[in-house]
Amino acid sequence: MALIEIHIRTQKQLLDSLDPSPFHERSLDRNAHTYILECAGEYPPHEALNLLIQGPENMRPCLAEMTQAIHGHYRLAHTQALRRHRYRMRSSKAILLAGSVVMIASLALHTILDDWTKTAFGKGLAEGLLVLGWVALWRPIDMLLYERFESWQERQLLDKLAQIPVEFAAIKEDHQ
Question: Which strands, in side-by-side order, build the sheet including 166-170?
């Protein structure tokens, strides 16, 4: 089991200080969100995670609120990631169609310009058309193959964080 530790002196370091309206649950501070997400991403997907919040003893009664905020924040982040994924997959089909049209057009022009390929200019133009066709397909292929996997990994991690067990450990405060 992997343990993610976060040290805070006040609840404000964990929770976003902005008014949560119109949202009913408080969200995490950006720095806390980024830290937890990066730490969780260092572990294999199958490994169980626990979050240990270390802070002054007077924060112990706030553990339920902090846990609820953490789980709510990552549930919302998971929902947003799912929406982004769906949007990308919808738009990738249109981009694939456009890339395919460019590829077919460049191949057709390459064939038409076959008579010109006896000159250096013609050869360069013909090769340029082939390169254009393949480059036009690069982004759709990237979206459909690679981004789909990365999006799946991100959603899996956010779902895991939306359910992460949260514990509290009191630390001694330094009086300076």
Answer: 2-7, 49-55, 166-170
Q: Per-residue pLDDT tens for 62-111?
A: 899 899 999 999 999 999 999 999 998 888 888 999 999 999 999 998 88
Return d(Cα 109, Cα 125) in angstroms, integer: 10
Compute φ and ψ for 101, nearest 5 degrees: -65, -45
Angle, CA of 140, 152 and 33, to the nearest 5° = 115
The residue among 17, 24, 9, 43 whose CA lies nearest residue 164 is 43
Burial 27-57, CB ≥16 within 10 A → b, else e: bbbeebbeebbebbeebeeeeebebebebee
Q: Is the dihedral of CA 14, 16, 17, 21 positive or negative?
A: negative
Query: What is the identity of the amino acid at 84?
Result: R
Task: Give the N- to C-terminal CA distance of the chain in Å, as an integer.
Answer: 36
pTM above 0.90, yes or no: no
